[in-house]
Amino acid sequence: MAFTSRTWTTGEVVTAAMMNTIRDDLDYLYAADYGEETVYVPVSAMWAETGSEPADQAILDNGTIVHPARGFDAAADEFLNFNLCMPKRFDNSTIVVKFIWTVDAGGAAGNVVWAAEAQLLDNDDAIGNDPTTQATVTDAWIANMDVHSTDWTGAIGDGTVTDENPFVEFRVGRLGSNGSDTLAGDADLLGVLVRWTSDLATDD
């Protein structure tokens, strides 16, 4: 549907067809506000997964501003967990993730394979189940203490939800055992961007 532009004449009698045009135009304008939304989750809002936790939280300092980070080892698969309660305008479908990371010291040419999983839950759904869908993204080392921003992962999000505000459990980490992960030493995660699609203009 496209926006319909028309000329109104003074004293013109309003017809049902005119009202339908106004309605369709309003729907078009509201729909223009829909689309993708993004939220940033810092590593300080995440917690280590038992049995596959990355190094203790470190504070990276390259000057005045400090940055909380978690060091992910090159020799193992390590994960952090966090959760979000989604807004009403979330379309209850899938989610994509982007990783923001750096290397404190000792970096050299190589790639890091990051992985993301998500479990979407409604009221009365059981928490803590392992997600079955994992999406990965590979990113190359640039320089120590530079911001590294990956591409977006593929779609993640197990579960069919209908609640206005579904609860989403996230699992993010580095796949050090993956053959495409070739960066020696720790990759320091700063946070992740989470993107979803809206199907409402507001949460009203």
Short description:
With 204 residues, the protein is mainly beta.
Q: How many domains in all?
A: 2
Counting DSSP E segments of at least 2 residues, the number of strands comes to: 11
In DSSP terms (H or I, runs of 4 or more residues), the helix count works out at 1
Low-confidence stretches: none
The biggest sheet, with number of strands, parallel, antiparallel or mixed sense and barrel status, is: 6 strands, antiparallel
CATH topology of the largest domain: Jelly Rolls
Radius of gyration: 22 Å
Q: Strand portion, in percent?
A: 35-45%
Find the CATH superfamily of the largest domain: Galactose-binding domain-like
How far do the termini sit from each other?
A: 24 Å
Could you estimate the helical fraction of the residues in percent? under 10%
**CATH-scheme architecture of the largest domain:** Sandwich
- Determine the mean pLDDT: 87
CATH C-level class of the largest domain is Mainly Beta
- Reading the helices and strands in chain order gives HEEEEEEEEEEE
Structural class: mainly beta
Apparent shape: elongated
